[in-house]
Amino acid sequence: MPKFSFPNFACRRFGRRRLRQVVLKETEVVHEGGGNGEASAQASASGEEAVTQEHFNRATAANPKDGTNNREKSLEVTKELLAVVPADEDQYRAQEPENSGTDDVSNGDSNHLEEFLQAAKLTFAGAKTVSSVLPFPGSGVVFDVLSGIIDFVQTKKGNDESNESLRTWILELQRLLPSNASDWSDEYRSIIDDFKSDVVKQLKPCATWESKSLAYKFIFAKIDEEKLSALSGCVSKAVQKFHVRLDIENARSNTQVQQSLRVVHNKVNEEALRRVIDQLPKLAAYDSNRTRELIPCHPGTCEVILKEVKTWAMAEIGGKQPQVMWLCGRAGTGKSTIATTIASWADKEKHFLGGNYFFSRDVEGLSSCSHVIPTIAYHLSEHLSEHNPLFNEAVRSRLVARNGHVLNQKIEEQFENLIREPLRLTYNPRVPRERTLLVIDGLDECDDQRKLKDLINLLLSMLSPTNAHIRILLVSRPEKHIEDALSSEKGLHPHVVRHNVEDFVTTSDVEEYLRLELFKIGKADWPSGDDFNSLAESCGQLFVYASTVINFIREETALRNHKKSLQILLSVRLSSEGHGAANAYRRLDELYLQILRVAVGDADEVDSEAMIRFRKALGTIALSRNPLSVSSIAHLIGVEEEEIWTILEFLRSVIIVPPQASEDRKNPPRFYHPSLPEFLMDGGRCKDKRFFIAAPLMEAYLFQRCVDIVIKGSTGIVNEDYIPTMYYVCWFWGYHLGKVEYETEQVMTKLGEFVRRHLLKWIRFARMLFRLCDPLYGCMEAAQNWVVCDRQCKC
């Protein structure tokens, strides 16, 4: 076998320029040593060691503590060395010098192995540890070295299969692993580091360690077929382990990502839902914080009617009990109090209150049917969130769809999208549905009788065997349009049962309420038994009479105390005609008159400035489309705010008046009970014409005032405290015009002037104020309808 010659090897490995340097050095050694072969060999060895030391110095020049710099230097050196290794034997021969002598014929396995070992020595020289040559977390050096083993270790022909197998794994690893893992998570870095450690462990059996001075050389031993196969198998196992751990970590990471996305998605949906819910009436529920609070029945009162309603609500699902109960009664009989008690009982004790809605004329937004269905649907979804999460999800998704567009749809479409369809989609005959009660109070206070009839028909259409778990309690006065909506051709709808409150409420219920409230005032041995009996007899079955009595007595002023107030009330009873339930409302009218007379005195005449101002103030409170603050009332009727406060000061027993000296002064004043404004606007009941408010004339006056303020505001600068009034008049001038029952010269003149000269100004101003067109369309439609109706009446 030809002897290994370092100059030939260096020529092939490092090019002719370096060869000349090595030859010169070898020549010098030969000259000094007398030209014998032993000296030549020593020179060759010295040259080899010099080149090795050069690369060792470069590889270890960086600060060992500076891991990044060390890795970069190691990677640079290794790649440079590997780059000059020929890929095959043809390239090996092509790089040989023309006069290579006997080395040209050296093609044996031993020669190949010797050449590889020399390259390996140069590659791994100076490495103190394996990890210093295989820098972490980068993977390039690891796989460059392994590729070098495969490309240049030429052993037996039987190694080809293992060789190719190892090559495949290496290429796969180079594809999988990043060249820079600095931006990877700690978990992925750990997997990569563990894998690289496994690869290094597999390299150790193929290596021997030699110590010389303080430097270590990583020298590959003779790699035969068995070792190469073992190395391939070990790398294969390492890759498989790496794949498994990577798959597990990917699955875990994907789960975390999905959970995070789900959280973000839920937060986005919650925010969208919150924006929609904010558009619903906030005071529709029985337990909302209204100025005129909804209070439940006093203990020991209305027990008979409450028991009747509770028995009906708890009846067997799918039994013979009707699914709808209509609880009706005249004003002041305690209907809303009973409805509040039932709603609270179903909610807090039985936990089957699915939804509730309490209409009210004196609360903004609660005299309209527009948002009844969305409110009930939202309540129902909250109630069924645990028992029927699919229904909950269906309602929520429909509420937020298209930015809450369902709130602007017709009530028929609202009902279909939010109640009927979700109930149908979530119906499962094998799963029993939870008992559900819906409570809707004050149907008579809805301002649109046609829409109210549609609402009732939709609720009745929901009654079917699949929805047998639903009970609906409707509460209102016994008005004809409500009775018609609940009736069929043969009478009351077969799914509806009717109860009159007067048939259940007794005088003893009212007496018990009166006794409890008088006790709270805290006057010992007062009133006397006779006086109490007289008061109770005057109240009859009307809770509103009893509550007004209590408010009047509780309201102490500088002019009267409790005893004086009681005497005034007892005089009302003595001046009344007749007794019993039939005359209860007549006595209530007398009670209202007495309280009003005490408030204003007897000096002023009907047409006095003070009484005109009084009627305008109370008429505005009674007829305003949305409740107005004291300041806005003063702006609307053109008087000083202090004058409104003076009027209201002595009416606190019948009107809820906000405190004047606090932030609550911005809250609107409200009647305690709708029976008072009804009395004031009924000429047959209000015997004292000083207090009678002619509703059509008052509506005409409010229309004219609205138009005057619109004209003034749209052509000038509006003060900040005037903005709520501007908001109201721009939105509702058409509403007040529509309530004018007959033409007056002033109304026609004002409307004509507004349309000809100020209509476009109002449109521009209102668009900036409202950011939407619905109020504009509503006013224009109301004006057109009023003009058409007026012409038809003339014909």
TrEMBL record:
Region: Disordered; residue ranges are 32-72, 86-109
Gene3D superfamilies reported in the protein's UniProt record: P-loop containing nucleotide triphosphate hydrolases
The keyword Ribosomal protein belongs to this UniProt entry's keyword annotation: no
Entries under Pfam families matching the protein: NPHP3_N (PF24883)
Sequence ranges of Low complexity compositional bias: 38-50
User: Which N-terminal residues, if any, form the signal peptide?
Assistant: none
Do you know which PROSITE patterns this protein is assigned to?
NACHT (PS50837)
CDD domains in the cross-refs: MLKL_NTD (cd21037)
* SUPFAM superfamilies to which the protein is assigned, alphabetical: P-loop containing nucleoside triphosphate hydrolases
The alphabetized UniProt keywords are:
Repeat
What segments bear the compositional bias annotation Polar residues? 97-109
The NACHT domain covers 323-489
Q: Which InterPro entries match?
A: MLKL-like_MCAfunc, NACHT_NTPase, NPHP3-like_N, P-loop_NTPase
* Protein name, per record: NACHT domain-containing protein
Q: Which organism is it from?
A: Schizopora paradoxa
Task: Provide the taxonomic classification.
Answer: Eukaryota, Fungi, Dikarya, Basidiomycota, Agaricomycotina
